[in-house]
Amino acid sequence: MTVESLTAKEVAKKVINNEPLFIFDVRNEDAFADWKIEGSRFDYLNIPYFDLLDGVEEAAAKLPTDKDILVVCAKEGSSVMVAEMLAEEGIEAAYLEGGMKAWSEHLEPVKVGDLKGGGELYQFVRIGKGCLSYMAISDGEAAVIDATRMADVFLNFAAEKGAVIKHVFDTHLHADHISGGRQIAEAIGAAYYLPPADAEEVVFDYVKLVNGLKVELGEEKTEIHAFYSPGHTIGSTSFIVDGQYLMTGDILFIDSIGRPDLAGLAEDWVGDLRESLYKRYPGLADGLIVLPAHFMIIDELNEDGSVYKTLSALFKENHGLNIEDEQTFRDMVTRHLPPQPNAYQEIRKTNMGIISPAEEEQRKWRLDQTAVLCGKPLNEAIKNWKLKERLT
Amino acid sequence: MIKTDKTLDAKGLACPMPIVRTKKAMNDLEPGQVIEVQATDRGSLADMKAWAKSSGNHYLGTSEEGNVLIHYLRKADRSEEKEEMKFPHTLTNAELEQQLGHGDLIVLDVREPAEYAFGHIEGAVSIPLGELEQRMSELDSDKEVIVICRTGKRSDFAAKQLEEKGFTRIKNAAQGMSEWTGATEPNNA
User: Which residues in chain A have Cβ-Cβ distances shorter than 8 Å to B23?
Assistant: First the structure.
């Protein structure tokens, strides 16, 4: 019996368009509790596939009759089996092609806006994991910022747009996901830039990304400026693209701020974080559009699936930018640090080129975990604190 | 090599097949028997544990040889959970922990080799219940013998067997390894 399937791209469209969908997740309970496909109008049922081997009648009674059903598992196999079993019971359900692995790797390119002189800026939304990457294209030349490890997506996208990738930047040495930056740069012969303070241990050649560095794209000379903003890491650097856009990396998010503890000691770097957020960013133009390297929750998606807000809006709304007292800020950030991502030291070593884990090996680390780990608990602590402060 | 009752080759199979095959193979096992499942699907690690829990069987552990994961599971034995203990001399795990390292003491672990392999009390002697009759002579009958298994049931049987053969200082660690909170060591399988 053949059953219908949905691709990760089709599911991403449903998330962005706020469409309803019933997710029947047949992975084991721990995996489901860890992370799932998030959508504002999605409903869920989790029964592990191994509890369905003797029949799906009981589960079928829990499935809705008025919603599309998508069966989801880790890599597809079990969801096909369950969808077929449901079909035999007369229940129509699709499965997710490639399972959660495909979902975790899906990048949805969304156009953020135009650049002066006809260029375009794209955001690549890794909707399953909350990572955000960028490509600026102008006159047939492109720059990539904070690429995730799915290098082919960026290479193919540039090719489709008839652009040659000239510059590949990472705002910092990532600790929560494997960067695709070096791979892209090597594939196309582009320059790969890293902040030298983060890159002391890297074992490959790179271009030093220093404060004030400027590159230009195409005949129109679309400018990309590097702007040193340490605090998440000692090297963390922001970018101002075309005088309109501010890529903040992991320093400033839409609804949260960076954490200072993934490459060193929180106590040492919290001062840098404070300086970047409260002294350096306020000196920039208010109208800049903030483009972070992560989003935390699906609510941060704009209507078209993009994730951005103006800097002035963040100064008003982002709780992490509104803690006046410096000591309170220090305590807040250092005492409420969320758990560190799994295997983050291995991820850092991979991004330094010191180790080259096979895909199987990476899977063992449960890599590319959500940005949720990076900002959400800290964010909640800050919000709770704000609430308490208001009450007392 | 850990001795088991059955080996299932699920190498090269993708989810859900390793579990489907294991479930099937388990049906042919006697309660209390141990199966070794060889799989290359990494997802089988979390799923074996979760499936064993949900089906009431015992997940013992997993070892790795190259790309191959070797899972050990023991088929649930309902009688172990229900029947009452018959051997009168028992001690708690806390009492056992206090006695360890004092005097002439043998801790006799009568679980299956795979159960023993993934965690046992340091220095415990491994003789599975099924082999105890033949191998009893390996034990020094002058020493105190404390018998332990997973839940106190198999050790209860073993204690009675030892008593019949003339051992005089025997105790059953009735709580068993499932409630053991002290130190354990794995053996190098």
Answer: 50, 53
Q: Which tens digits make up the pLDDT trace of B93-142?
A: 999 999 887 778 999 999 999 999 999 999 999 999 999 999 999 998 88
Q: Is A73 a catalytic residue?
A: yes
Cβ separation A53–B19 shorter than 8 A: yes
Taking contacts as CB-CB distances below 8 angstroms, the residues of chain A near B20 are 53
Return the closest-CA partner of residue A12 out of A160, A146, A124: A124
Q: Which residue has the tokens 């929560």?
A: A176
Cβ contact A338:A377 at 8 Å: yes
| DSSP letters for A304-341 | TS---EEHHHHHHH-GGG----HHHHHHHHHHSPPPPP
Verdict on whether the full-model pTM lies above 0.95: no
pLDDT tens per residue, range A236-282: 999 999 999 999 999 999 988 988 877 667 788 899 999 999 999 99
**B16 preceded by cis ω (within 30°)?**
yes
**Tokens describing residue A267:** 């106590």
Q: Which residue of A has its CA nearest to B13?
A: A77
Tell me whether residue A342 is exposed, middle or buried, using C-beta atoms within 10 angstroms of its C-beta: 0 to 12, 13 to 18, 19 or more. middle
Taking an 8 Å Cβ-Cβ cutoff, which residues of chain A contact chain B? Answer: 28-31, 48-51, 53, 73-75, 77-78, 81, 360, 363-364
B152 Cβ contact list (under 8 Å, min separation 6): B85, B90, B172, B173, B174, B175, B176
Place of tokens 């129109």: A220
Angstrom distance (rounded) from CA A220 to CA A232: 33
- Long-range contact list for B58-63, CB < 8 A, 24+ apart? B58/B115, B58/B150, B60/B34, B60/B114, B60/B115, B60/B117, B60/B118, B61/B114, B61/B117, B61/B118, B61/B119, B61/B186, B63/B2, B63/B189
Catalytic residue selected from A73, A226, A288, A291: A73
Nearest to A48 among B20, B42, B54 (CB): B54
What secondary structure, in 3-state letters, does B80-114 show? HHHCCCCCCCEECHHHHHHHCCCCCEEEEECCCHH
